[in-house]
Amino acid sequence: MALSGIQIYKLLPQTNCKECGFPTCLAFAMKLAAKQVELSLCPTVSEEAKAQLSEAAAPPVRPITLKSNGYEVLSGNEVALFRHEKRFFSPTGLFLRVYDDDPVEEIKRKVTAVANYTVDYVGIDLKWDGIAVQARGGDFVAAVTAVRAITHLPLILIGEAEALKPALATLDEGKLLLAFAAANNWQAMAELAKTRPAALAVQAETIDEMVELTEKVKAAGVDDIVICPAQRGLHGTLIANSTARRMALKQTFRALGYPILNIAGDAPTPEMETILAAQAIGKYGSFIILDHFAPETAYPLLVLRQNIYTDPQKPIQVQPGLYEINNPGPDDPVLVTTNFSITYFSVKNEVESAGLPAWLLVTESEGMSVLTAWAAGKFDAERIAKDVKRFNVADKVSHKRLVLPGHTAVLSGEVEVELPGWEVKVGPREAVDVPKFMKQVLV
Ligand code: SF4
Fold first, then answer.
1. Least crowded by CB within 10 Å, which of 128, 152, 206, 217?
2. Is the CB of 46 within 6 Å of ligand 1?
């Protein structure tokens, strides 16, 4: 359980030397209790106190990173139950499952599709994260070898210890996740995990059984544990994931303070599999195993994950500047917008796909959308004029005309005052209407 600020204070040197950057040991203790500072800031804490405090200061959800030849999947290290309280830190890892009794060519085909998939979303490359290989009575080593012939994405290996062991001997890279340690096999799985060392997924029907198992596995010497609720339906998974995460964060209950693995691939249909995966992305799934991969479901899952794991206090931004769309010339129009990524890409994509050349002036507006930036005073005449000069717009075009977003028509007069000699036109409110406006009004 977590220690209170006073309990932590009693373990500190109590000299108030200020070397940690705080005026007193008590102030430092309070920050430590709130998990806002690292214990290492105090250079004089005793080894005995360090041992006790390190446990108290450890993140409530243990961070575990699966690694393989430069690829990484982060998990754990979460501190908030709801995204708006702070942010979520470790995006859910999506893994495609193949089976060792699948034909090798089938395994390679599936894995190639995942390994080659990348999609651009507001300037960010979104990708699948790894491959799970499950023993089902086939040639497990051959299946793992087939996967590794295609990609070095991180692996989850599923099966009994005797099936997994020969395959482990063929893999010399990174950190794997082994699954599953259950009531009947946890000793053998824990021993196998310790040989790498690998992370170990523990599977149980109830929270009580899960607690019992994680404590046994930890006592056996495995620190990197992942919990996998045995429930497979929407309701059961939601309850199990939420209970575990709530107890980890609100009670600092260490036996459940681990990343969570969900098996969406066990769903009865591909559609339900996608729904289960979407729920797990939203509610505390650290790793999700799916049996089907298709771009039309991969993309929405990745975008959902991107949106949930973006810091809500830091909008996705693009660099302010003067961007070229379809090789514009000096006579082509200058469109003005903010540097919120989605706003930028909305305008750019509409104009680009219409085949129209234009200059797009992206102003410094702290990553806010047009209306929000205008309301917050981050998209005003002064800033627009400043960026027109900063990015030398006048040197690129033969005219002196700007097009403002329709929502900010009120700024047009002020911009003309800030930029004497320039004419301001008011464009449409929605990006989708920009091409039509360019064809009908800017002629
Ligand atoms: S550095 Fe350590 S001893 Fe000094 S004030 Fe901070 S907590 Fe106290």
1. 206
2. no
The CATH code belonging to domain 5-57 is 1.10.15.40
Q: Strand locations in 175-329, DSSP E?
A: 177-181, 199-204, 225-229, 261-263, 287-290, 321-325
Question: Is 17 a pocket residue for ligand 1 (Cβ < 6 Å)?
Answer: yes
Q: Which of 14, 26, 28, 30 to mutate to test the pocket of ligand 1 (most atoms within 8 A of CB)?
A: 28
Whether the pLDDT of residue 1 is over 60: the answer is no
Instruction: Say whether domain 64-308 belongs to CATH 3.20.20.20.
Output: yes
Domain borders along the chain are 5-57, 64-308, 321-440
Ligand 1 neighbourhood includes 124 CB (under 6 angstroms):
no
Torsion of CA 382, 383, 389, 394, to 10 degrees: -90
d(CA 413, CA 426): 11
Question: 99 φ, ψ to 5°?
Answer: -115, 150
Mutate which of 17, 26, 39 for ligand 1? The one with the most ligand atoms within 8 Å of its CB, which is 17
Output the CA 58–ligand 1 centroid distance in Å.
Answer: 19
Token pair recorded at residue 222:
């495995």
* Contact predicate 297/304, CB 8 Å: no
pLDDT of residue 36: 76
pTM of the entire structure? 0.80
Count of H-run helices and E-run strands, the chain:
17, 17
**Architecture of the CATH domain 321-440:** 3-Layer(aba) Sandwich (3.40)
Q: Tens digit of pLDDT for each residue in 284-327?
A: 999 999 999 999 999 999 999 999 998 888 878 889 999 999 99
- Specify whether the CB–CB gap between 196 and 168 falls below 8 A: yes
Res 173 pLDDT > 80:
no
Indicate if the pLDDT at residue 412 is higher than 70.
yes
